[in-house]
Amino acid sequence: MLDQAALLTTFRDLYLAVDIRYVRGTTMALIPEVVASRLDVAFVTLPRRLPEPVQAIQLVTEPILFVCRPDHPLAGRKRVALTSLAEQDFVGPLPGWTGYEAVDRVFARAGKRRRVTFEVNDVSTFLDFVAHGLGVTLAVESVVAIRPDLRAIPLAGPAMTWTLAAIVHRHATPAARAFIALLPEFRTAGQRP
User: Fold this and answer.
1) Which residue pairs, CB below 8 angstroms and at least 24 apart, start in 141-146?
2) pLDDT tens-digit map of 97-111
3) How many whole angstroms separate alpha carbon 40 and alpha carbon 34?
4) pTM of the predicted structure, to 2 decimals
5) pLDDT digits (tens, 9 = 90+) for 80-103
């Protein structure tokens, strides 16, 4: 969705005097780092709300799909209602994690809770666990597209989407502003904010 290595290479080549430090973390860990100005920029799953000093630049928005093995009882459906998944074992982050808040709200309204039997926060591992029949998951279209061994089914009801965003502090450093200015040319073709 975003060629981070190419983006960082271009930025480094344009701004040789800027020291670059790259770290990976969850959205919940990265947001406070930007708030405290310990990170200039972070790529995160856009939450419902951001703390006041943080601004988001939406990069990619994709639909969320139900993902299962081809032999799963729901694999033949054209659409799957979230509420019909309450008894399923999920592979993925625990309830309440950024990106899953809307899913968890749907379950809560139905008096249910998403049952996460395998807590994993790496998407390729999610899909490996699903492929081995350890549970089902929810993922975005571009991620599932690389796994033809799995079945991805649209969710019924109102569209549920996931958004990748770059976040910066409202008082971003000149280096952060220069980095953000490069973002549009590194989005995957066809993706819309």
Assistant:
1) 141/62, 141/63, 141/65, 142/1, 142/62, 142/188, 144/65, 144/67
2) 777 777 788 888 888
3) 6
4) 0.81
5) 998 889 889 999 876 667 777 777
On whether the CB atoms of residues 130 and 68 are closer than 8 A, the answer is yes
Indicate the residue type of 148: P
Q: Write down all domains in the chain, each with its CATH number in brackets.
A: 4-60+162-186 (3.40.190.10), 61-161 (3.40.190.10)
